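Appendix B. Chain record.
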Amino acid sequence: MVQVNKSIISYKTLVLVLLFLGMFTREASAQTEVEPWGNITGIRVQGQLFEFETSLRVAGKDWTKLHATAKEEQNPQYHREGKTQLVTTRIDSLYFNERVADGEAGSAIVAINFMPHADTTLTGVYFVVRIAKGDYTGASIKVNNDWVNLNALKATTGNEYLNGNTQAVEIKSLNRSLKLTLDEPTEVSLRADTGKLHKGDYLLYLPIAQGDIKNGQGIVKTYTLAVSGKIDNAPVTLKVNTQQNGRLFAGFGGNFRIQNPKNDPQVIDYSLNNLRVAWGRVEMPWRFWQPEKDSDPTENAKDNKLHPAVQKAMEMAQRLSKMNIPVILTAWSAPDWAIEGKPRFRHQSGEPWGNPLNYGNIDAAYKSIADYIVYLHDAYGVDVKLFSFNESDLGINIRQTGLQHADLIKGLGAYFVSRGLKTKLLLGDNSDATTYEFIYPAMADPAARQYIGAISFHSWRGWDTPILQKWAEAAKKMNLPLIVGEGSIDAAAWNYPAIFEEQTYALEEINLYTRLLAICQPLTILQWQLTADYSPLIGGGIFGNNAPLAPTQRFWNLKQLASTPEDVYAMPISNNGKYLSVAALGNNGKHTYVVHIVNNGATRQVTLSGLPQMVTKGVLYLTDKGHQMEKTPVAINNGIAKFKVEATSYVSLVVEK
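Structure tokens predicted for this chain:
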């Protein structure tokens, strides 16, 4: 049974609530950060993010089988209407419509429309606010009229610190506060987070419904969240060490896998015409190159019988090659004869991803791949630098173990040599940074070393510094270039493409790239993709938007990164700014230097030292929600540059003698 019957309201009442939210946001000034699956991660005030995290949680009977909204856990839909962000999602048969409206003075109003599509018995459905313990050290919590020090609370056997019937909860520490106001008095509960990721944090449970829930029993709840506190706009000092050179950064690159023949060409044209693309990755449509084991794909190609997908992929490689862009060739899937079992193109719950190679036909597989590379050279003039199977650690769509990967490198690498090919193998090309152990067998095998041209991983998951350092260490140990084969932050974002237009996504993406430059020192970062898939452009029919083709903030971020001067090397840089990510690159022979800075906080002054005495001026490029690589001259005196970085911005100081 639903605990608070008053919360069951009519559709007409819901409409009035939502109209009120729309009216309220016209004069809004806060910036609420909402993930496309519905979790609010904080509210910005003057650019500074006051962090917390909300989620919708469903607790089974007696708190069994707890499910929560989270990245890649549901299939949400996301879009924006003015200053209101809307998310539609479901957990099993429980459907949610969530509207998050920016409010004034660091506040947001959340309206949740909950609609069960089946009778269900639960402990409850909750709007939950996670409060990081580190952000509220020594804080006190107020429920009703009583303030209690959080450190004095003791959790019960049910991990509950306290509960009470209230219409407002406030948590306050020395530098920040968070206040939640409910639409009516409700029994709330403060619990301990026992999960591995956020163990020790506080979880504030606000019930939406409890007990027996009936099919069609709609409920609407509204919450106001307000933050306040000290804005950190303290000056930051950076110091670059130009005497210590790391690995070469050849420049920004891109993936050019053709998946949308109608819309891909316009994005590819725009990208290649407006970006300096240093490396490119294209597909080998192996399934369509040689669908039958005993056929001769080269003769078929010579007879003008190339499959259209193969022809387009080869033409894409040729276009890059003519622009002197090195080409990586990657196979996502294989012909049926080259794999074991029925092809798996979509993952099914409880089943493994992809298919292993059929080692009974491995020699024929080696020949087929080499034939493709030879034909690509002979007919299209393309020299393939590196070859890989895409994300074979996971199985998209060819699956290998680490030992099988090492054996493939040795076997295919040796076969390439026997055919006179200079193409090397990519070590890894992993699905995520987290699966670094996949490359260890090949690293430990001296026979594989001669065939490896570079190490590669994809940046979808595993952004913690210790994990990223694993890849930097591997590249250093092998004395090989490191490539981020697919760069971006959310592999499921194609399901809710409106997120690509959000400042939140743009800032997080370029922040990751800046950290990758500093920690991993990659040869290149290959954007996924510079096509209509995950497009950095909007309009032109992409994602159903028929407005004229135009760049987004993401595109300008990528362009600014791609404008890094050629032939620069990673250089150490110190940074005392909590909210800044920085990376430095330079070439002492050319007296060329660039410092990339992402400011994830309020506007502040920066003092950069350590530049050579002979450089006297630079140019500061600014990209944020309202600026597109805006240029400002910067004077440099005695190796010191002083400049301002705007709130939530990406800036690059370029120094060239």
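Further analysis of this model is presented in Appendix C.
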